[in-house]
Specification:
The chain is of the alpha+beta class and about 140 residues long. It has seven helices and four strands. It has a four-stranded antiparallel β-sheet with strand order 2-3-1-4, with helices on both faces. The protein binds guanosine-5'-diphosphate.
Length: about 140
Amino acid sequence: MAVERTLSIIKPDATRRNLTGAIVARFEEAGLRVVAQRRMRLTPEQAQQFYAVHSERAFFDDLCAFMTSGPVVVQVLEGEDAIAKNREVMGATNPANADEGTIRRDFGESVEANSAHGSDAPETAAEEIAFFFRGIDIVG
Ligand code: GDP
């Protein structure tokens, strides 16, 4: 195990219901530390670029519309094994399939409005952190 950083996004369905603190508490209880955080409204271009890997999927336009429908909170989480741990705490993509006690099971509204994003590998974590926090000094 190593100390890693990963990119987390609290999605618009969660900010709309004022769940930012409740979701951050789940990360902190799991030993992850919020070392950078920014609340913002994604532009359509940012959403399309961020989810470019899904551009051929049938749900791409809906996903981009959802991600720009309200504020998001983008965060860098740091901790031992942070990438896997974050995804464990989030749960499966579809809240209906997510384990009990996970963020998506407890807060997600649908497979699309599933409250949180987390990077899936070291390479994507580095890219996604740079996407939102390039040039910002992150203090761990
Ligand atoms: P993740 O890594 O668990 O977030 O899952 P993916 O990378 O496969 O998908 C990215 C995001 O697209 C998910 O978190 C959902 O918000 C959305 N998504 C995934 N599958 C579907 C789907 O079948 N329909 C819709 N509308 N959205 C989806």
